[in-house]
Amino acid sequence: MTDISTTAAPSAPHWGSDTARKRVARRYGADRRLQIYGMAAIGTALGLLALLLISLIFAGYLAFTTTKVNLGIFLDSAQISKDEPGKANYRKITRDAFYGYFPEVTSNAEKRALAKIVSSGADYIVRDYVVSNPDKIGELIKVAVPVSDPFDQLYKGIIPREINALSPDRLVLFDVLTRRGVLSIENGTSVVQVDAFVDPAKIPAEGGLEAGAYQAMVNEALKTYYYQEASLAYEEILSDTAADVLKAYVLANPSSVGTTIQIKLPLSPNYDNLHQKGEAKILNPRFGSAKEFGWFDSLVTQGLITTPFTWELFTNADSRFPEMAGLAGALSGSFLALMVCFLLSFPIGIATAVYLEEFAPKNRLTDLIEVNINNLAAVPSVVFGLLGLALFLNTFGMPRSAPLVGGMVLALMTLPTIIVATRAALKAVPPSIREAALGVGASKHQVMMHHVVPLALPGILTGTIIGLAQALGETAPLLLIGMNAFIPSIENIGLTQPAMALPTQIFSWADSPERGFVSRTSAAILVLLGFLVVMNILAVYLRRKFERKW
Amino acid sequence: MEQQTLENAASQQPKVDHHPIKVKSSKVCVSYGEKQALFDVDLDVPANAVTALIGPSGCGKSTYLRCVNRMNDTIPIAKVTGKIEIDGQDISDPELDVVELRARVGMVFQKPNPFPKSIFDNVAYGPTIHGLCKKKADLEEVVATSLQRAGLWDEVKDRLHEQGTGLSGGQQQRLCIARAIATKPDIILMDEPCSALDPIATAKVEELMHELRENYTIMIVTHSMAQAQRVSQKTAFFHIGYMVEYGDTDQIFNNPQDKRTQDYIFGRFG
């Protein structure tokens, strides 16, 4: 064995020789490595895609249900006229009906807080209901109206009732007070014992004792325990009434002015809570007071709260209130723009491709056109937006924000894609089919229309749908021509009316501060992705359906 | 048995000299751009006979064939000079519509190329675009006769609406022949029609040529000298762009005059 391999000519080593084995191992290794690289790349891409989808679904699925409260509303014919059902004060009717569930709430301030539980859009829902059912006037109706965004988020468990919001330097101050042993509980509230100097300099001559700067004196007293530059820390740790307690004492003992007195000052509710229960929680600042939770909880226990599917996401137009905001305006705008885009780019694209591929003479000019079309497919979409802005809006004076212009800009962007795809599809039709058709005496036009174009159709349609799907997701050019108008109603939808598109709606919602728009944004992205998936499935289906073998 | 009859036929092809001249070519030259592919071809093809064009690859026989129905027009760089007459009519006459010409001169290609449509539509396409059939019944009639003449009717009559591309290679080629004869041509050009077929399918197509010869003028390009001997009455030998020798098939194969023809026929080159 060894003998053979050593005696064999170096140019033709034996199969079993060490070098041959090494070479084979190296080749197998290279094959394996190539496979592993490919698999790793696909795995990474799939993983990231899954991550994106999962995070979108997690953020967005809650927007597909809305927290609603079933309101029983008596449509008093004294308040609503049958002739003009749209004219009544539905704000008052809705609120009064809602107040009816809380007879214990009487003060105006509390009523205002109570009304905040229901969405501001509830009035319109009731109005629309009455306008479409005028025969219900004089009857008791049941209407499900959305609750306002904070309560929607609360019910879905997205935001908590209380948050950890004690800042570290306040906690240090609290710790110092605890260690000094000056904190105690009196009559159920936590108090801090301080030595307060009733500073005559802080009592103005004019107002007398009534007008003294007692808050400043209280802050000064706390400063002796722990020095802080800003007095805010002292004011936050003490109750709002702490200065009043000192004031009451001084008013009762005018002789204390100029002396240092020992006094117990109440702590603010948060620090009272921390001292008595050890919990450093405060009320979520999105809510006005803890009472609101009680009211809301009572609605829950009465079984009035439901979470139906958010059809409003598809039927409502945009709104400033996330619980009322929907995609109807954006969907119609995107639909119109895509229609315009399709009607322009499909025939023009196919005609261009057919001419260039089948009829055009091969010369410098057609070469130049060909190179430019291929390059146009790679031009950033924002450039097409600028072109649309300069040409369609400024030069031609077409309407701003209109789906017509949006569709034209998107058509500019889609055209190269369609032309390139169509040319590739036409090229892929075997020449034997053309020869066969020419051979039986078909004219050039008949060869194209009866044979080549139908055979290329699957490829053309796939390219078109992919181009349209790209156009559907395009944001930048639409922003430039202003197709991000705020469309609160879908009554004025038209080719030349201001409109919104899906991606610009997502863009504008993502920019909104309300918490509810976070999930609305994700939901809108899911809707957009859904449409893209549907379009791609359609592309695959059409390709399968029209694909012919030859 | 069948093989036997074919060989007998090959050894004694009928004389066709008394047949009228169907295709008359004089000084036909073809060049593709700078490269000239065909030089001064003079060829008189008799009607109702099979004329075989033989020669090594690149000799210009297919190029000549494609001149007869002006298929070379579809190649932008191709330039054809000289004169080809069919029944005395110059085919390069600007008065003559090339579409009409191709309806009169059917073509069958090397690779079976049925349209990806039903068998019926394949055959019906030519008559339809030329407006030969006004009524549906006429069209059905034409399709049936064409398929019968192409010897395919019995095999496909129950599945006329299945895809033509689903047939076997030999059936596809006979379908292409049926498609070519459906437009009622006088001449059928065949460009190596059997090169993609197995011997059984080839035998069927050759048998078909025997039958079609009654009504059509057939010109066939072939690489198989046995085939040329079996099916053709006249044979033209092409060599690097020149038509070297033309005569009765029996004479070309048994007693070639030109040295180059002898070398090719007896297998000394090509």
Description:
The complex is a heterodimer of chains A (550) and B (270). By secondary structure, chain A is mainly α. Chain A has 22 helices and eight strands. Chain A has a three-stranded antiparallel β-sheet with strand order 2-1-8. In chain A, strand 4 and strand 5 form a beta hairpin. In chain A, helix 8 (214-223) crosses helix 10 (242-252) and helix 14 packs antiparallel against helix 19 (444-472). Chain B has 270 residues and is an alpha/beta fold. Chain B contains eleven helices and ten strands. Chain B has helices at residues 2-11, 61-68, 98-104, 119-129, 136-149, 153-156, 169-182, 199-212, 225-231, 249-254, 259-265; strands at residues 21-32, 35-46, 50-54, 78-86, 89-90, 105-108, 187-191, 217-221, 234-239, 242-248. Chain B has a six-stranded mixed β-sheet with strand order 6-7-8-3-9-10, with helices on both faces. In chain B, strands 2-1-4-5 form a four-stranded antiparallel β-sheet, with helices on one face. In chain B, a hairpin with a 2-residue loop joins strand 4 and strand 5 (89-90). The longest helix of chain B is centred in the middle third of the chain and has 14 residues, at 136-149. Chain A binds chain B through residues 361-362, 430, 432-443, 446, 450-451, 455, 548-550, and chain B through 69, 71, 74, 76, 99-103, 106-109, 111, 113-116, 125-126, 129-130, 163, 165, 176, 179-180, 182-183.
